[in-house]
Amino acid sequence: MIKIKSRWSALSILMIAVLLMAVAIPPGVNAQALTPEDLVELPAAQTLDHEGEDTASISPQVIYDIDKVSAGGHHSLVLRGNGSIYAFGRNSRGRLGIGDYTHRDEAVKIPRDGEDGEGLPHAINAVDICAGSSHSLVLLENGDVYSFGYGNDGELGHGSFGDVENVPLRIETNLPADADAVGIAAGGSHSLIVLDNGDVYSFGDNDDGQLGLGHSSERNSPQKIPREGEGGEGLPAHMDAVAVAAGGDHSLVLLENGDLYSFGCNDNFQLGLGHSNNKEVPTKISRGADGLPADVGVKKLSAGEEHSLVLLENGEIYSFGYGMYGRLGHDSSRNESVPRLVEELEGRNMISISAGKEHSLVVEDDGTAYSFGRNNFGQLGVGEKEPCEDYDPENGDCGICDPLEGEYCEGASEIGRELSPRKIEAMPSKASVVSASSHSLVGMGDQTLYSFGLNNYGQLGVGHEDNLYLPEKVILPEAEIVYGDVDGDRKVTVNDAVMVLRGIVGLIDLKDWQLEAGDVTGTGALSVDDAIQILRHVVEIIDTFPVEE
Question: What pLDDT, on a 0 to 100 scale, did the predictor assign at position 290?
């Protein structure tokens, strides 16, 4: 076991904490092969100065979970477990939020240099992301919402039309000071925010009533959706909203009792109301024989360009709206005017859903990913052509052809669409989160990200601009730690200390490790109390370094 001397400097403790977090992640690391001297000995002359230069760097392999992914019109956003956001793809009008207008075919970190409300702040983590057609929203853990990209219809929410923001800018106008945001949604050209008081605010394009305000005039700053509704139309006065979704021109709102409301464009039944009339006010989707189940609440919702997906608490999926190319998963291209159970997935526990432009992605709790709908750009991830009939994906080769290696049988038919959910055989490990547009993003349980589909602006993040018909690993940079700078912004902050705490707590469940390095309290086992003590030591040394409050 690792034996730690009784006296340590604060910096030494910090270094141990950071490195413990780092070595906890890669498999196969033997803790007994490490010594305290290996962990903490750095030349005293190398220090982090107040300009962030001349730093002493250590670069262990630190990989953070893929918490969320979001596929926009031609760009992509990725939220990692350290609260940092990466962007890639089309960057005209600043939709990547990285401070310029150059397209990227590999992931670039959105800077956290925020001052005066512009740019993401250093010490506050992002907890949600949403990429719309040409704009993006970010939700921080303190309840603030930032936007960037193209705001032609007011979808950035800063009080003007035609905005172009190439760095994140905080939305402040018209939002109450005594409530925090808990949910966001970016659609074609409109945005939604749900607050912790249960109110929903909307802004942007409103030609089809997608803002739910009772009219069709666009708005360039957040407007509260009225809660006076009676008789099934309008949000109830005494029932809070908990989640929102924004499609091409329609919107969905989930209430705390599991009811689902919709409004906006309904020309292809994407509101699930049993008719094709647009709605300018939130209208309840029926629960019962002709709609969603009466006795099961909604867990997640996703609005595509012209269709919608709903995940229930029991793990079942319902879909409605435009059925062309099979995007609803019902073994047909028929439109559905009310929610209909995706029968092929009945009885399975689904955990993630995403409605794209013309296809859908879903994930089962065992990590199996399925796709259905159009495949003109490869967005289903199942290849360009049908594989040979006796292909066995578990063995990897049937002796005739291997579609995972781009090999297909002579005369095989093109895959243009899938009318029912089809397993994405080429996923190398278990999927966890998905997002769909005309391209697809799949976050994996092994902390990697895969993409496929349309790639004309590098929105797949794989280093080129060729469309992909099978999943390929996205190029995500490894995190570099500079002393205690866990989030990589070249400043040691309270946020870094929190990241260290999370890393130490993550070690506690590794029961096959015999660690005494973090045993601050002397109990002989690594505990939450030890992590808290380490955090306190980390916070004590913050004043030695440049700090962003």
Answer: 82
